[in-house]
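Entry 14. Structure prediction run on the chain below.
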Amino acid sequence: MVLSNAERQARYRKNLKARALGVSPDDVLAAVEAMVSFERRTNPDAPEWEEILKRSRARGGLAIWRQWFAEPFDPELCDDLTAAGLDGDIVRRVWPVAHAVLNPPQG
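Output returned:
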């Protein structure tokens, strides 16, 4: 998908606004729930949201959260989520923050 200059500028302004808003724990839950819903549409064998929450609250549950934000931010996935009727904007706001927290730079 090729974006015009105006579309790129609009996306940039939207991302700046999203970063300024910050991220709450409820935002993280909503973002993962949207990603789980999207994955279940493409892979019916994927675990349901309630199962993900149950696993994440068990011992070693951090790995569950880390798997959702392991890769660097992917704006195309957010666009796909929005096109599917899910909240791609919350994922766009949460993903960079969660990735940085769960995968700190080594150094």
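The chain is about 70% helix and 0% strand.
Filed with the rest of this week's runs.
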